[in-house]
């Protein structure tokens, strides 16, 4: 009986270890998939650039000739804000691309993106601060013909001259 008990105990422990290892493997696979998607969304944003004001959205949309290209750019902006910046909007449906199976038009996507852009600038002690302030970023430089990545943290924003650029600003980085 003792041998049976020890054998069963060892078998249960072995099954428990296998189950825990499988859970760890699944979590790691999910994390890797999330990182892969974030990298893909970041590559899209590198192509389209991050639009940070309503006027910039309008100007960038004028540069696209086809509606399909415009929709791709708008979707890239929204996906990046949702999945990489983890922006929290007042209405979670601003991240949607369709309603009841019907795709949004360019105007509807533009309106949603403009609202997200406006909400990205939050009031903080009577000054406005962009949601990127305080976030860690990877920044790529080309040095001696070689591409190098640096990890940094956005420490502040510097507003541009209002007479030249409406509602635009630059962010300053601190490299770690």
Automatic annotation (TrEMBL):
Coiled coil start-end: 2-40
Keywords: Coiled coil
InterPro entries: SPIN/Ssty_sf (IPR042567)
Name of this chain's protein: Uncharacterized protein
Superkingdom in the source lineage: Eukaryota
Organism in which the protein naturally occurs: Dreissena polymorpha
